[in-house]
Design goal:
By secondary structure, the chain is mainly β. It has 1 helix and 8 strands. It has a single domain, classed as Quinohemoprotein amine dehydrogenase alpha subunit, domain 2 (Lipocalin), CATH 2.40.128.120. The protein is 5% helix and 55% strand. An 8-stranded antiparallel beta barrel has the order 1-2-3-4-5-6-7-8. β2 and β3 form a beta hairpin.
Length: 111
Amino acid sequence: MFRLPVTGQFGSTPAAGQITAFNNGVGTFWVQIPGGARCSGEYQVRDPNPALVLAGKCSNGKQGQIVVTRTPDLMSGSAIVKLTDGTRGQFVYGNLTFGQAFGQGVVATIR
């Protein structure tokens, strides 16, 4: 089992969380805005693909789609999020910085 930090933003509001990979091959993730809703989901740790499309659900009833791009070692990556209400998010995990993934001042667009 290992855990990795997640940092990023929903809209322009900072959020943080964690990815946990379990020995049974199931991974979990969550992110939260301080004082706000917590959004979470699961993924398959052993999936060898560098990009994954995941579903997420939030404690306030919102849900959405997450597109994750992973580094070759699968220990770092970035994610773009779109919730059903149109809220968008950008996140990084592991050793990847937000600037490395998205550039400074860049906002991802999901259509």
